[in-house]
Design goal:
Residues 11-43 form the Zinc finger DksA/TraR C4-type domain. Keywords: Metal-binding, Zinc, Zinc-finger. This is TraR/DksA family transcriptional regulator. This protein is mainly α. It has a single domain (2-43), classed as Four Helix Bundle (Hemerythrin (Met), subunit A) (Up-down Bundle), CATH 1.20.120. The chain is 46% helix and 0% strand. The chain is built from three helices and no strands. It has helices spanning 2-10, 25-30, 38-43. The longest helix is centred in the N-terminal third of the chain and has 9 residues, at 2-10. The protein is globular. The protein starts with a helix and ends with a helix.
């Protein structure tokens, strides 16, 4: 959660760290600490 607060302070909260696109509001509601949009999260190896 600390990283999410850092992104909020930096003005990058809600922006995907991979593609630079917006992270959807529904995803942020479900996972406020999400740093990837749903598309990038789906293709990222676990």
């Amino acid at each position: 959660m600390r990283r999410a607060l850092e992104r909020l302070d930096a003005g990058t909260y809600g922006t995907c760290e991979n593609c630079g696109g917006l992270i959807g509001a529904e995803r942020l509601d479900a996972r406020p600490d999400a740093s990837l949009c749903i598309e990038c999260a789906a293709i990222r190896p676990r």
